[in-house]
Fold these 2 entries.
Entry 1:
Amino acid sequence: EPEVTQTPSHQVTQMGQEVILRCVPISNHLYFYWYRQILGQKVEFLVSFYNNEISEKSEIFDDQFSVERPDGSNFTLKIRSTKLEDSAMYFCASRGTFLANTGELFFGEGSRLTVL
Amino acid sequence: KQEVTQIPAALSVPEGENLVLNCSFTDSAIYNLQWFRQDPGKGLTSLLLIQSSQREQTSGRLNASLDKSSGRSTLYIAASQPGDSATYLCAVIGGTYKYIFGTGTRLKVLA
Protein backbone atom coordinates (compact mmCIF):
# COMPACT_ATOMS: atom_id res chain seq x y z
CA GLU A 1 0.00 0.00 0.00
CA PRO A 2 1.39 3.42 -0.88
CA GLU A 3 2.53 5.49 2.07
CA VAL A 4 4.02 8.83 3.00
CA THR A 5 7.55 8.50 4.35
CA GLN A 6 9.40 11.01 6.50
CA THR A 7 13.02 11.38 7.59
CA PRO A 8 14.51 11.75 10.08
CA SER A 9 12.21 10.22 12.66
CA HIS A 10 13.90 12.26 15.39
CA GLN A 11 16.28 15.20 15.22
CA VAL A 12 17.93 17.03 18.07
CA THR A 13 19.43 20.41 17.29
CA GLN A 14 20.81 23.47 19.01
CA MET A 15 18.84 26.71 19.03
CA GLY A 16 19.71 28.84 16.01
CA GLN A 17 20.65 25.91 13.79
CA GLU A 18 19.00 25.12 10.46
CA VAL A 19 16.93 21.97 10.14
CA ILE A 20 15.57 20.25 7.05
CA LEU A 21 12.80 17.70 7.38
CA ARG A 22 12.17 15.45 4.42
CA CYS A 23 9.08 13.77 3.08
CA VAL A 24 8.24 11.53 0.17
CA PRO A 25 4.50 11.90 -0.54
CA ILE A 26 2.41 9.26 -2.26
CA SER A 27 3.46 9.27 -5.88
CA ASN A 28 0.21 10.18 -7.64
CA HIS A 29 -0.84 12.81 -5.11
CA LEU A 30 -0.85 16.48 -6.04
CA TYR A 31 -1.46 18.28 -2.75
CA PHE A 32 1.16 18.30 -0.02
CA TYR A 33 1.00 19.57 3.53
CA TRP A 34 3.06 20.11 6.63
CA TYR A 35 1.36 20.01 10.02
CA ARG A 36 2.82 20.45 13.47
CA GLN A 37 1.85 18.96 16.82
CA ILE A 38 3.37 20.28 20.01
CA LEU A 39 3.34 17.60 22.71
CA GLY A 40 -0.13 17.22 24.14
CA GLN A 41 -1.69 19.77 21.82
CA LYS A 42 -3.74 19.70 18.66
CA VAL A 43 -2.53 19.08 15.12
CA GLU A 44 -1.91 22.50 13.55
CA PHE A 45 -1.76 23.37 9.87
CA LEU A 46 1.50 24.95 8.71
CA VAL A 47 1.46 25.06 4.92
CA SER A 48 -0.10 23.56 1.82
CA PHE A 49 1.67 23.13 -1.50
CA TYR A 50 0.23 22.53 -4.96
CA ASN A 51 1.55 22.90 -8.47
CA ASN A 52 5.03 23.77 -7.20
CA GLU A 53 3.96 26.66 -5.07
CA ILE A 54 2.55 27.43 -1.65
CA SER A 55 -1.25 27.46 -1.70
CA GLU A 56 -1.74 28.66 1.84
CA LYS A 57 0.28 29.13 4.99
CA SER A 58 -0.67 29.70 8.59
CA GLU A 59 0.54 32.48 10.87
CA ILE A 60 2.95 29.95 12.39
CA PHE A 61 4.72 29.64 9.03
CA ASP A 62 6.80 32.80 9.25
CA ASP A 63 9.96 33.80 7.38
CA GLN A 64 11.98 31.19 9.26
CA PHE A 65 10.09 28.42 7.46
CA SER A 66 10.27 27.40 3.83
CA VAL A 67 9.15 24.44 1.75
CA GLU A 68 10.51 23.02 -1.43
CA ARG A 69 9.86 20.23 -3.87
CA PRO A 70 13.36 19.89 -5.29
CA ASP A 71 12.56 16.94 -7.55
CA GLY A 72 9.58 14.80 -8.53
CA SER A 73 9.42 12.89 -5.27
CA ASN A 74 10.73 14.84 -2.25
CA PHE A 75 8.97 17.57 -0.29
CA THR A 76 11.03 19.36 2.34
CA LEU A 77 10.41 21.70 5.24
CA LYS A 78 13.30 23.95 6.26
CA ILE A 79 13.52 25.89 9.48
CA ARG A 80 16.30 28.44 9.08
CA SER A 81 17.10 29.33 12.68
CA THR A 82 15.38 27.06 15.15
CA LYS A 83 13.86 28.33 18.39
CA LEU A 84 12.99 26.40 21.53
CA GLU A 85 9.30 26.72 20.69
CA ASP A 86 9.85 24.91 17.38
CA SER A 87 10.18 21.66 19.34
CA ALA A 88 7.30 19.53 18.11
CA MET A 89 6.31 16.61 15.93
CA TYR A 90 6.17 17.65 12.29
CA PHE A 91 3.89 15.66 10.02
CA CYS A 92 3.92 15.57 6.25
CA ALA A 93 0.68 14.65 4.48
CA SER A 94 -0.52 14.29 0.93
CA ARG A 95 -3.75 13.77 -0.92
CA GLY A 96 -5.10 13.38 -4.41
CA THR A 97 -7.89 15.41 -5.96
CA PHE A 98 -11.50 15.11 -4.81
CA LEU A 99 -12.59 13.79 -8.18
CA ALA A 100 -9.89 11.22 -8.89
CA ASN A 101 -8.90 10.13 -5.37
CA THR A 102 -11.65 11.26 -2.94
CA GLY A 103 -9.25 13.75 -1.35
CA GLU A 104 -8.41 11.41 1.52
CA LEU A 105 -5.44 12.73 3.49
CA PHE A 106 -2.54 10.39 4.27
CA PHE A 107 0.08 11.14 6.90
CA GLY A 108 3.65 10.13 7.43
CA GLU A 109 4.89 8.86 10.80
CA GLY A 110 6.28 12.27 11.70
CA SER A 111 9.64 13.82 12.49
CA ARG A 112 10.17 14.71 16.13
CA LEU A 113 12.23 17.89 16.42
CA THR A 114 13.85 18.73 19.73
CA VAL A 115 15.52 22.13 20.01
CA LEU A 116 17.93 22.57 22.92
CA LYS B 1 -13.00 30.62 10.09
CA GLN B 2 -13.64 26.90 10.45
CA GLU B 3 -13.42 25.53 13.99
CA VAL B 4 -13.64 21.88 14.92
CA THR B 5 -14.56 20.69 18.40
CA GLN B 6 -14.54 17.17 19.79
CA ILE B 7 -16.46 15.96 22.80
CA PRO B 8 -15.60 14.36 25.15
CA ALA B 9 -11.93 15.27 25.51
CA ALA B 10 -11.28 11.97 27.27
CA LEU B 11 -13.23 8.79 27.79
CA SER B 12 -12.56 5.64 29.80
CA VAL B 13 -14.80 2.61 29.28
CA PRO B 14 -14.76 -1.09 30.15
CA GLU B 15 -14.03 -3.53 27.36
CA GLY B 16 -17.05 -4.55 25.31
CA GLU B 17 -18.93 -1.26 25.53
CA ASN B 18 -20.31 0.49 22.47
CA LEU B 19 -19.30 4.13 22.41
CA VAL B 20 -19.86 7.35 20.49
CA LEU B 21 -17.34 10.10 19.85
CA ASN B 22 -18.59 13.48 18.72
CA CYS B 23 -17.19 16.04 16.33
CA SER B 24 -18.72 19.40 15.47
CA PHE B 25 -17.65 22.04 12.98
CA THR B 26 -18.77 25.63 12.52
CA ASP B 27 -18.77 25.97 8.70
CA SER B 28 -20.97 23.40 6.97
CA ALA B 29 -19.44 24.07 3.53
CA ILE B 30 -17.08 21.10 3.61
CA TYR B 31 -15.92 18.63 0.96
CA ASN B 32 -14.84 15.83 3.28
CA LEU B 33 -14.74 14.82 6.91
CA GLN B 34 -12.10 12.33 7.96
CA TRP B 35 -11.60 10.40 11.21
CA PHE B 36 -8.09 9.47 12.31
CA ARG B 37 -6.54 7.42 15.05
CA GLN B 38 -3.30 8.50 16.75
CA ASP B 39 -1.32 6.28 19.08
CA PRO B 40 1.05 8.01 21.54
CA GLY B 41 4.11 9.41 19.78
CA LYS B 42 2.93 8.11 16.42
CA GLY B 43 1.49 9.42 13.18
CA LEU B 44 -2.15 9.70 12.18
CA THR B 45 -3.87 6.68 10.69
CA SER B 46 -6.92 7.29 8.54
CA LEU B 47 -9.97 5.39 9.76
CA LEU B 48 -12.89 6.65 7.70
CA LEU B 49 -13.52 9.32 5.11
CA ILE B 50 -16.99 10.73 4.53
CA GLN B 51 -17.47 12.81 1.42
CA SER B 52 -19.94 15.69 1.54
CA SER B 53 -22.55 13.78 -0.47
CA GLN B 54 -22.44 10.81 1.91
CA ARG B 55 -24.22 10.32 5.21
CA GLU B 56 -22.13 7.53 6.71
CA GLN B 57 -19.25 5.15 6.23
CA THR B 58 -18.50 1.82 7.89
CA SER B 59 -15.32 -0.15 8.41
CA GLY B 60 -15.46 -3.21 10.62
CA ARG B 61 -16.57 -2.14 14.10
CA LEU B 62 -16.42 1.54 13.16
CA ASN B 63 -19.27 3.60 11.78
CA ALA B 64 -19.06 7.31 11.09
CA SER B 65 -22.00 9.52 10.27
CA LEU B 66 -22.15 13.03 8.90
CA ASP B 67 -24.84 15.67 9.23
CA LYS B 68 -23.50 18.60 7.26
CA SER B 69 -26.43 20.90 7.89
CA SER B 70 -25.99 20.72 11.64
CA GLY B 71 -22.19 20.60 11.47
CA ARG B 72 -21.84 17.28 13.24
CA SER B 73 -20.25 13.89 12.86
CA THR B 74 -20.21 10.91 15.16
CA LEU B 75 -17.84 7.97 15.29
CA TYR B 76 -19.44 4.85 16.67
CA ILE B 77 -17.18 2.08 17.96
CA ALA B 78 -18.90 -1.24 18.61
CA ALA B 79 -17.74 -3.78 21.16
CA SER B 80 -14.69 -1.77 22.23
CA GLN B 81 -11.38 -3.55 22.88
CA PRO B 82 -8.23 -2.51 24.77
CA GLY B 83 -6.49 -2.22 21.40
CA ASP B 84 -8.87 0.62 20.54
CA SER B 85 -7.18 2.79 23.16
CA ALA B 86 -5.81 5.84 21.33
CA THR B 87 -6.64 9.44 20.51
CA TYR B 88 -9.31 9.86 17.85
CA LEU B 89 -9.22 12.98 15.71
CA CYS B 90 -11.68 14.36 13.24
CA ALA B 91 -10.75 16.78 10.49
CA VAL B 92 -12.71 18.66 7.85
CA ILE B 93 -11.69 20.18 4.54
CA GLY B 94 -13.61 22.96 2.84
CA GLY B 95 -13.02 25.86 0.53
CA THR B 96 -9.54 26.61 1.84
CA TYR B 97 -8.42 23.13 0.71
CA LYS B 98 -6.73 22.30 3.97
CA TYR B 99 -7.85 19.83 6.61
CA ILE B 100 -8.58 21.45 9.97
CA PHE B 101 -8.36 19.25 13.02
CA GLY B 102 -10.28 18.98 16.22
CA THR B 103 -8.57 18.64 19.58
CA GLY B 104 -9.23 14.90 19.76
CA THR B 105 -10.82 12.44 22.15
CA ARG B 106 -8.44 10.30 24.25
CA LEU B 107 -10.00 6.88 24.59
CA LYS B 108 -8.97 4.27 27.12
CA VAL B 109 -10.62 0.86 27.01
CA LEU B 110 -10.09 -1.11 30.20
CA ALA B 111 -9.62 -4.87 30.07
Entry 2:
Amino acid sequence: DAGVTQSPTHLIKTRGQHVTLRCSPISGHKSVSWYQQVLGQGPQFIFQYYEKEERGRGNFPDRFSARQFPNYSSELNVNALLLGDSALYLCASSLNRGMGQPQHFGDGTRLSIL
Amino acid sequence: ILNVEQSPQSLHVQEGDSTNFTCSFPSSNFYALHWYRWETAKSPEALFVMTLNGDEKKKGRISATLNTKEGYSYLYIKGSQPEDSATYLCAFRRAGGSYIPTFGRGTSLIVHP
Protein backbone atom coordinates (compact mmCIF):
# COMPACT_ATOMS: atom_id res chain seq x y z
CA ASP A 1 0.00 0.00 0.00
CA ALA A 2 1.21 3.50 -0.80
CA GLY A 3 2.23 5.61 2.15
CA VAL A 4 1.62 9.32 2.57
CA THR A 5 2.80 11.11 -0.56
CA GLN A 6 3.75 14.76 -0.76
CA SER A 7 4.54 16.94 -3.73
CA PRO A 8 6.72 18.58 -4.73
CA THR A 9 9.75 17.24 -2.86
CA HIS A 10 11.70 20.46 -3.24
CA LEU A 11 10.65 23.99 -4.08
CA ILE A 12 12.46 27.31 -4.40
CA LYS A 13 10.47 30.54 -4.20
CA THR A 14 11.23 34.21 -3.66
CA ARG A 15 9.87 36.53 -1.00
CA GLY A 16 6.30 37.67 -1.60
CA GLN A 17 5.35 34.72 -3.76
CA HIS A 18 2.67 32.17 -3.03
CA VAL A 19 3.11 28.39 -2.72
CA THR A 20 0.82 25.35 -2.69
CA LEU A 21 1.96 22.07 -1.21
CA ARG A 22 0.04 18.84 -1.73
CA CYS A 23 -0.51 15.72 0.31
CA SER A 24 -2.22 12.40 -0.39
CA PRO A 25 -2.98 10.38 2.75
CA ILE A 26 -2.83 6.63 3.12
CA SER A 27 -5.92 5.05 1.57
CA GLY A 28 -8.72 4.99 4.15
CA HIS A 29 -7.20 7.69 6.35
CA LYS A 30 -9.55 10.61 6.91
CA SER A 31 -7.39 12.88 9.04
CA VAL A 32 -4.54 14.97 7.63
CA SER A 33 -2.22 17.22 9.61
CA TRP A 34 0.44 19.67 8.44
CA TYR A 35 3.67 20.51 10.26
CA GLN A 36 6.56 22.90 9.72
CA GLN A 37 10.01 21.69 10.74
CA VAL A 38 12.91 24.10 10.99
CA LEU A 39 16.42 22.70 11.45
CA GLY A 40 17.15 22.02 15.10
CA GLN A 41 13.51 22.17 16.16
CA GLY A 42 10.76 19.60 16.45
CA PRO A 43 7.88 19.72 13.97
CA GLN A 44 5.45 22.58 14.67
CA PHE A 45 1.76 21.86 14.18
CA ILE A 46 0.06 24.04 11.55
CA PHE A 47 -3.35 22.47 10.77
CA GLN A 48 -5.41 19.35 11.19
CA TYR A 49 -8.27 18.47 8.87
CA TYR A 50 -10.75 15.68 9.47
CA GLU A 51 -13.66 14.85 7.20
CA LYS A 52 -12.87 17.97 5.17
CA GLU A 53 -13.23 20.34 8.12
CA GLU A 54 -10.52 22.20 10.01
CA ARG A 55 -10.25 20.61 13.45
CA GLY A 56 -7.14 22.30 14.79
CA ARG A 57 -4.91 25.26 14.03
CA GLY A 58 -1.46 26.01 15.39
CA ASN A 59 0.09 29.38 16.08
CA PHE A 60 0.69 30.44 12.48
CA PRO A 61 -0.34 33.68 10.73
CA ASP A 62 -3.31 33.94 8.38
CA ARG A 63 -0.91 33.72 5.42
CA PHE A 64 -1.11 29.97 6.04
CA SER A 65 -4.28 28.20 4.92
CA ALA A 66 -5.26 24.67 4.00
CA ARG A 67 -8.11 22.58 2.79
CA GLN A 68 -9.08 18.94 2.46
CA PHE A 69 -10.80 17.53 -0.57
CA PRO A 70 -13.57 14.88 -0.83
CA ASN A 71 -10.91 12.22 -1.54
CA TYR A 72 -9.18 13.31 1.73
CA SER A 73 -6.12 14.72 -0.02
CA SER A 74 -5.04 18.10 1.23
CA GLU A 75 -3.33 21.31 0.16
CA LEU A 76 -1.34 23.75 2.27
CA ASN A 77 -1.17 27.29 0.90
CA VAL A 78 1.21 29.98 2.04
CA ASN A 79 0.86 33.56 0.78
CA ALA A 80 3.33 36.45 0.84
CA LEU A 81 6.28 34.18 1.53
CA LEU A 82 8.92 35.35 3.99
CA LEU A 83 12.50 34.16 4.40
CA GLY A 84 11.44 32.60 7.70
CA ASP A 85 9.03 30.27 5.90
CA SER A 86 12.00 28.26 4.63
CA ALA A 87 11.52 24.85 6.21
CA LEU A 88 10.57 21.23 5.71
CA TYR A 89 6.78 20.89 5.52
CA LEU A 90 5.49 17.53 6.66
CA CYS A 91 2.08 16.02 6.10
CA ALA A 92 0.78 13.22 8.31
CA SER A 93 -2.36 11.11 8.05
CA SER A 94 -4.25 8.93 10.50
CA LEU A 95 -7.41 6.86 10.35
CA ASN A 96 -9.32 9.31 12.51
CA ARG A 97 -8.76 11.74 15.38
CA GLY A 98 -8.86 9.05 18.06
CA MET A 99 -6.49 8.98 21.03
CA GLY A 100 -4.65 5.83 20.07
CA GLN A 101 -4.12 6.68 16.45
CA PRO A 102 -0.51 7.00 15.33
CA GLN A 103 0.27 9.48 12.59
CA HIS A 104 1.94 8.34 9.39
CA PHE A 105 4.22 10.95 7.87
CA GLY A 106 5.21 11.70 4.30
CA ASP A 107 8.76 12.51 3.25
CA GLY A 108 8.03 16.23 3.29
CA THR A 109 8.44 19.19 0.96
CA ARG A 110 11.64 21.20 1.39
CA LEU A 111 10.74 24.86 0.77
CA SER A 112 13.52 27.39 0.29
CA ILE A 113 12.78 31.11 0.11
CA LEU A 114 15.36 33.36 -1.57
CA ILE B 1 3.01 27.62 25.20
CA LEU B 2 3.58 24.01 26.21
CA ASN B 3 7.08 22.90 27.13
CA VAL B 4 8.10 19.48 25.85
CA GLU B 5 11.75 18.79 26.61
CA GLN B 6 13.87 15.91 25.42
CA SER B 7 17.23 14.93 26.86
CA PRO B 8 19.92 14.43 26.02
CA GLN B 9 20.01 16.44 22.80
CA SER B 10 22.43 13.93 21.26
CA LEU B 11 23.97 10.65 22.21
CA HIS B 12 26.83 8.58 20.82
CA VAL B 13 27.00 4.93 21.88
CA GLN B 14 28.85 1.82 20.81
CA GLU B 15 27.12 -1.10 19.12
CA GLY B 16 25.73 -3.39 21.79
CA ASP B 17 25.28 -0.67 24.42
CA SER B 18 21.87 -0.15 25.95
CA THR B 19 20.66 3.42 26.17
CA ASN B 20 17.73 5.51 27.26
CA PHE B 21 16.45 9.03 26.86
CA THR B 22 13.77 11.19 28.37
CA CYS B 23 10.76 13.18 27.26
CA SER B 24 9.35 15.66 29.82
CA PHE B 25 5.94 17.24 29.39
CA PRO B 26 3.32 19.13 31.44
CA SER B 27 1.77 16.84 34.07
CA SER B 28 -1.71 18.35 33.79
CA ASN B 29 -4.42 17.67 31.19
CA PHE B 30 -2.60 14.66 29.73
CA TYR B 31 -4.19 13.09 26.63
CA ALA B 32 -1.51 11.06 24.84
CA LEU B 33 2.24 10.81 24.30
CA HIS B 34 3.66 9.69 20.96
CA TRP B 35 7.20 8.47 20.19
CA TYR B 36 8.62 8.62 16.66
CA ARG B 37 11.87 7.54 15.06
CA TRP B 38 13.19 9.76 12.28
CA GLU B 39 16.03 8.42 10.18
CA THR B 40 17.97 10.74 7.91
CA ALA B 41 16.37 11.15 4.47
CA LYS B 42 13.27 9.25 5.57
CA SER B 43 9.93 10.24 7.06
CA PRO B 44 9.20 10.02 10.81
CA GLU B 45 8.00 6.56 11.80
CA ALA B 46 5.52 6.05 14.62
CA LEU B 47 6.93 3.86 17.42
CA PHE B 48 4.44 4.09 20.28
CA VAL B 49 1.25 5.83 21.34
CA MET B 50 0.96 5.96 25.13
CA THR B 51 -2.26 6.96 26.80
CA LEU B 52 -2.39 5.65 30.39
CA ASN B 53 -0.22 6.36 33.42
CA GLY B 54 2.07 3.40 33.93
CA ASP B 55 1.85 2.31 30.29
CA GLU B 56 4.76 0.22 29.10
CA LYS B 57 5.13 -0.51 25.39
CA LYS B 58 7.65 -2.70 23.62
CA LYS B 59 8.64 -3.19 19.98
CA GLY B 60 11.60 -5.51 19.50
CA ARG B 61 14.58 -4.04 21.36
CA ILE B 62 12.84 -0.70 21.97
CA SER B 63 10.54 -0.06 24.89
CA ALA B 64 8.93 2.96 26.52
CA THR B 65 7.38 3.83 29.86
CA LEU B 66 5.03 6.61 30.84
CA ASN B 67 4.50 8.56 34.07
CA THR B 68 1.73 11.13 33.55
CA LYS B 69 1.65 12.25 37.20
CA GLU B 70 5.22 13.51 37.10
CA GLY B 71 5.22 14.29 33.39
CA TYR B 72 7.87 12.11 31.80
CA SER B 73 8.38 9.18 29.47
CA TYR B 74 11.50 7.10 28.97
CA LEU B 75 12.53 5.38 25.75
CA TYR B 76 14.93 2.46 26.12
CA ILE B 77 16.96 0.72 23.43
CA LYS B 78 18.54 -2.58 24.41
CA GLY B 79 21.70 -3.70 22.60
CA SER B 80 21.89 -0.72 20.21
CA GLN B 81 22.65 -1.45 16.56
CA PRO B 82 23.94 0.98 13.89
CA GLU B 83 20.51 0.85 12.23
CA ASP B 84 19.04 2.39 15.41
CA SER B 85 20.86 5.63 14.53
CA ALA B 86 18.13 8.24 14.14
CA THR B 87 16.47 11.18 15.84
CA TYR B 88 13.86 10.10 18.37
CA LEU B 89 10.98 12.53 18.80
CA CYS B 90 8.25 12.64 21.37
CA ALA B 91 4.97 14.51 20.93
CA PHE B 92 2.63 15.46 23.80
CA ARG B 93 -1.07 15.89 23.25
CA ARG B 94 -3.01 17.85 25.84
CA ALA B 95 -6.64 17.15 26.65
CA GLY B 96 -9.18 19.78 25.71
CA GLY B 97 -9.37 22.04 22.72
CA SER B 98 -8.09 20.50 19.53
CA TYR B 99 -5.62 18.04 21.13
CA ILE B 100 -2.83 19.66 19.15
CA PRO B 101 0.45 17.71 19.42
CA THR B 102 3.53 19.54 20.68
CA PHE B 103 6.83 17.97 19.67
CA GLY B 104 10.11 18.05 21.53
CA ARG B 105 13.32 18.85 19.66
CA GLY B 106 14.34 15.22 19.61
CA THR B 107 17.29 13.14 20.77
CA SER B 108 19.83 12.35 18.05
CA LEU B 109 21.25 8.86 18.57
CA ILE B 110 24.37 7.68 16.75
CA VAL B 111 25.41 4.06 17.22
CA HIS B 112 29.02 3.37 16.27
CA PRO B 113 29.91 -0.11 14.95
